[in-house]
Specification:
4 domains; Beta-Lactamase; Sig_transdc_His_kin-like_C; alpha+beta; transmembrane helix
């Protein structure tokens, strides 16, 4: 019924156009007054003009209607007050279609805004990019994690790690990839996952960033603390009676004025065996006590510390040891640089790092550099050596308690150093290249 009037109008006009010439022919054949023929001619011209006007107006309004869809314009409105009733019905139908399209578009926009706001409020860092690396959306968690105010191009992430943008674009859907990023003097261990989405003809890539370093370190810390508590309890309980018995027997044999009925070489053999057992048990007790110190480290006492003076004390402490192996220990630090820290604990950490550096040297022109610098409001302390370095497959194990590659080492130094840094709210980072040297950095965060 929508186009009933429009169709009827066209039919009537077409019929009149067909009849009018016939009427003119009849008038001419029967020699009727020429005035009637002129009137029919004018009527015919009017009908042709009217038909052309109707068709052109219909085409014009239809083109306007179709173009509004092409440009997504839902604000267009066709007036239903047209004098021609046929156009009133047509324009009313156009308006109904435009309103339905507008409502559909509004529902889609509401749905998009809902999901966009949901992504922005998620605790997981999210970035959405197109196939050309243009950033379509980021959420607050991502900007906070990577310390950016905005990101327009994925290439900007290459400032955190060279080639990171290419890694992200090549990440397979639902594949997890781990990367280490240095952000504002903070080392992040980030798990990356990617999902491909299709929006009309465009392919979008949603990438999630999740810093799992704290979870990994927390689990690691809990595991070795639990192990140490068990070790301390069990081993000391076992060694205590051994110490007492071995010490008593040793004293009995050494102080006994009445010789026992046994050969002298047998007696000496027993004394040596008991003495060895006693010394070994003492060594094991001291070994376990060193690990007990880690479980007792619960908090730090921070104070204002002059970093240059701290490094100078350590340089003086190792001057003789460094001279013996022909090593130069240098300091790179401003004289007035200061920071709030637990000076005693950090000094012990630095002593351990310098000691490790000296033990790793295998060159005649060896050197160790202690470097202190500020990155914004955060302090970075580094100990660099040009020793033999750490093999790539062992670099992630050096901070694990009990793990050591050095003969006579107990594997406690770097593990304890990492715990000290965690108590300071910072991190310990180890970088090494085999044959070139090692850099251990203490990263403090405000």
């Amino acid at each position: 019924m929508t186009f009933k009037h429009s169709s009827l109008s066209l039919i009537v006009q077409s019929v009149l156009l067909a009849i009018t010439p016939l009427m003119g022919l009849v008038i001419w054949l029967y020699e009727q007054p020429l005035m009637l023929l002129y009137l029919l001619g004018c009527l015919y011209i009017f009908q042709v003009g009217r038909l052309i006007y109707t068709v052109r107006k219909t085409n014009r309004e239809l083109a306007k209607f179709i173009q509004s869809f092409g440009f997504g314009d839902t604000t267009i409105h066709f007036s239903t007050r047209d004098k021609d009733a046929s156009f009133q019905d047509l324009f009313r139908a156009f308006n109904q279609v435009v309103e339905a399209f507008r409502q559909l578009k509004l529902d889609k926009e509401k749905e998009y805004l809902f999901f966009e706001n949901a992504l922005k409020k998620l605790g997981v860092a999210i970035i959405v990019v197109n196939e050309h690396g243009n950033v379509m959306m980021t959420n607050d968690a991502l900007l906070q994690l990577l310390d950016f105010k905005y990101i327009h191009r994925l290439d900007k992430l290459n400032t955190l790690k060279p080639g990171l943008a290419d890694e992200l674009m090549q990440l397979q859907p639902h594949q997890q990839h781990l990367v280490e990023l240095m952000v504002n003097n903070r080392l992040l261990q980030v798990a990356l996952t990617s999902v491909l989405m299709k929006q009309e003809t465009k392919v979008l890539r949603l990438i999630a960033f999740q810093d799992i370093r704290s979870e990994i370190e927390q689990k690691e810390l809990e595991s070795w603390q639990k192990l140490i508590r068990v070790l301390t309890h069990e081993v000391i309980n076992s060694l205590s009676p051994v110490n007492l018995i071995s010490a008593g027997l040793k004293q009995r044999f050494e102080n006994n004025t009445q010789p026992l009925v046994m050969e002298a070489d047998e007696q000496q053999e027993i004394i040596e065996a008991l003495d060895a057992m006693h010394n070994r048990s003492k060594g094991l007790t001291q070994f376990v006590e060193s690990y007990r110190s880690m479980t007792g480290l619960k908090s730090v006492q921070t104070s204002h510390c002059n970093i240059h003076q701290l490094l100078s004390r350590i340089q003086t402490l190792f001057a003789a040891s460094a001279s013996e192996v022909n090593c130069l220990i240098s300091i790179e630090c401003q004289a007035d640089l200061a920071y709030n820290m637990d000076e005693k604990l950090i000094e012990q950490v630095l002593i351990n790092l310098v000691k490790n550096g000296l033990e790793a040297l295998d060159k005649t022109d060896s050197n160790i550099a202690m470097v202190a610098k500020m990155n914004g409001r955060n302090l970075q302390l580094s100990v660099k050596d040009n020793g033999k370095g750490i093999p790539h497959d062992e670099i992630n194990k050096v901070c694990v308690p009990f793990y050591t590659t050095r003969q006579g080492g107990n594997g406690i130094g770097l593990a304890l150093s990492r715990q000290v840094m965690r108590l300071h709210g910072g991190q310990l980072k180890v970088d090494s290249k085999e044959g070139q040297g090692t850099v251990v950095s203490l990263l403090f965060s405000v």
